[in-house]
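The passage that follows is intended for readers who have already worked through the single-chain material. We present the inputs for a multi-component assembly, then the predicted structure in tokenized form, and finally a short commentary. You are encouraged to pause after the input and sketch how you expect the pieces to fit together before reading on.
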Amino acid sequence: MHGKDMTLEVRNLGKLYWPKNGKTPGGGIQPISFSLKPGTFFTLLGPSGCGKTTTLRCIAGLEQPDEGSLRLGETVFFDADTDALVPLNRRNIGMVFQSYAIWPHMTVFENVAFPLRVEKGVKRDKAQIARMVDVALTTVGLAGYASRSATQLSGGQQQRVALARAIVRQPGLLLLDEPLSNLDARLRDEMRNELKRLQKQIGITTVYVTHDQHEALEMSDVIAVINAGVLEQMGSPREIYDRPRNAFVASFMGGTNLLPARTEAAVAEDARQTVRLEAGQDVSVVFPYAVPAGRKIAVSVRPEAVQLAPVGTPLPAGWNELIGKVGTSGFLGNMMRYSIDLPTGRIEAHQPPDAGFAEGDAVSVRFAADKALGLIDQAA
Amino acid sequence: MSATQLAAPAETGAEARRPARRKAANWRGRGWRVRLPVFAVTTILALLVLPPLVILVRTSLTDYSAPGDDLTLYNFTSLFADPLLYVSAFNSVLFAALSTLLSLIIGAVVAWIVERSNAPFKRLAVLTTVISLGTPAILYVYAWVFLLGRAGPVNATWRWLTGTRDNLVDIYSIPGMVLVEGFLWVPLVFLLCSATFKRQNADLEEAARMSGANVFDTVLRVSLPMAKPALLGLALFIFIRNIEAFDVPVLLGTPGGIKLLTSDVYLAMTRVPPDLGHSSAFAVIMILLVSVLLYFYGRVSRSADRYASVTGKGFRPRPFDLGRYRWVGGAIILLNFLLVLAAPLSAILWNSVTPFVRPFSIAALSNLSVGNYTQVLTDPYYLDMALNTVIVATAAATVAVALTAVVAWFSVRNFPGSQALEHLVSLPIVLPGIVLGVAMIQIALRTPFGLYGTLWLIVIAFVIRYMPYGMRYAQPGVMQIHRELEEAAGIAGAGQAGIFRRVVFPLLSPALLAAWLFIFLLASKELSIAILLAGSNSKTIAVAMFDQWTNGQAGEVAALGMIWTVLMSCLAALMIWLTGKDKKSEGTL
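Having made your guess, compare it with the prediction:
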């Protein structure tokens, strides 16, 4: 943005709200590190209470971390060792809040002009402010709305005002805290594309917080999956979806069937190996990461990778087969969703809408070995 | 998501791990830049609130009859040895309890009819409230003395009907005092009850109706139990205010020979020479009594929160259809209007246009005059009093509101070092007006510069007394401001002062304006403090009315009262309109 290197460097950033003990699992975030090149769209993804918003608020300066350091380009925002701290109003960051935080007593123009008026050490004349506000409003598609009262706007428009306010003084970093969660489903889809387009157009480094894996997959360059304050995996959307680090990441990134098992011997990365499920059957699975011997694992099979067939249908080479009974079925328009009762537990299968299995039918459940991932189950 | 809410219990944990860094956990900033303003406000509050308490305790422990530096329990032992204390205390409690019951029954019934039924004349109830809030209590007492006095229309009619020489009511007795004090508090009970009933979720009542209950059963089994904690809290609050009541005990009790705690304090102070030790000991006992009551009030009102069935906005309770009994409801509202407003007001009006005190009669109509009004409007004495009142009430309301706005912001947002603020600002609640008056006199006598007898002494006393009321508006006001609105301003580059000026204050201003008007109204009719502190040149309207009445200038008091009531009613209407518009501070008196 400023022609300088505006890399965001986060080193061992940690914050502890209360320590882990018998009663509570411990709150806050374990030390987390990442480095974002200028223009990256980075998403912190995780379930409610996992610490993703805390991380974002630490970057914003709304929370003070306990340890680690935080740097944007040349500026050290925070360093626990040197006790350096730049207060939030001097960080030149743009942020869109979950509630939008549009000031109801100001017009759209006043809301967007606010960061320009309060900036320390910079005096801008009226015309300059008007021009910058106009540019920001045009960018978000709200040209002509300047004189409206902020409270007269729809949710989507308030969202755009919040965005215009965040980018009006061309900040070094844009933070988005679940900005789409208050919109209805259709508007959310529309804004998702709009946000992505805008981010690319301005080329601003963006940190995005969400619990919605679809949003994360569609918008991000890099995703960090966080659970209970711990960074589980960081990578591109495809990497996270196709090669989840463990059973939590696999189940959080879209629905999956997890079949419990245990490794007998150590397994190398990308090895294909036969393991015995806890239910007793042997299945052939692929291990995207190395697993030591004797670890509890889960075999992850996506519902769309499961095929159903009448019992006795020949099995393609390299496929696994389990025999079960159709428990429930549901017609979803574009597909049939079946829940198959296995001797131990259940497995979900998505089939073409013309599949005709009746409830109670015995069926052959089958899936290719390279669609079955052997993943560490950290619950053990 | 809930990671933001994790911030709330932040104070509890992690102390062990990183104690050093806990201090700076707030994004508001660190170091003296945030601590200094908080410290300054804390100091101002402490300087206002603590001296009256300290000085009361100190004088209550001083024996003025045997001068010396030693602290002694003499005042207390002589007080407790005096059977008069127990009589006064019993009278006070009886008077307060019965008055509370009376105002609660009338106020709550009328409020329920207005808020939750389809009875006619609803606006009449609101009008009654508005005008009553604007009327000084002393004027009410005066009107009822005229109506229920020995020569008043009620007793005269009774004698004429029965042919006896006995009176129906004796206003200078506990029942008479209860009647007047009870009517006096009906408007406020109505206002607070309305807020409670308005918040009740009609879905719960409709569920009862759908289960087969009739209107009566529904009210008895669902509506009333739901409102019970709120009503109980309200009853305690009114009871406390009645224990502190000054006007009725002094104006009706003293002539009737009925002693109450407040009138005892007042009499001890106005004796020559004033018995400071005795009245201070009395005052300390009153503070303890009120503190105990407040403790229970706090517990009750906390449990009332659990019953709040409505939280969202844009909610409209659906009224009950009373059917044939609609007109009974209307009649009750009408009766309330007649008793609480029309009767006393017409008595005052009558007195203001008759040259001398005389009962209602057709014959007297022929020599009505506006002489009292011309007298009041042309006499510079009254103009000075009015000016004094406006100055005192304006200054007190402005300072109290400004202080509480900042205090509420600091304490709601947990600024570093702000823990003591909330307690300090609500401490004066334990001080009844007359007690605060006693304390302020002693403070004024000890200050080297001439504070005694000036308007500023009254202003300071009023600021202390009304700060807790300001807080009742400002605190929920700040809580209503979504914290992200402030965080957004911080991120956008504003400092704390900028956030307050540009975001918090504008959003808070409707609540602050309502608070200002409320305090202005209370201060302009407050008698108990002003009467002790007023010098000959620093009297307020309420004190002037008191003086003129005791001097027998009833007609002028009435005329003055009419004019004042009209002016104050306009302000009261503005306040009620504002609090109605601004839902968050509703019912937070």
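Commentary: The radius of gyration of chain B is 26 Å. Chain B has 24 helices and no strands. How closely did your sketch match?
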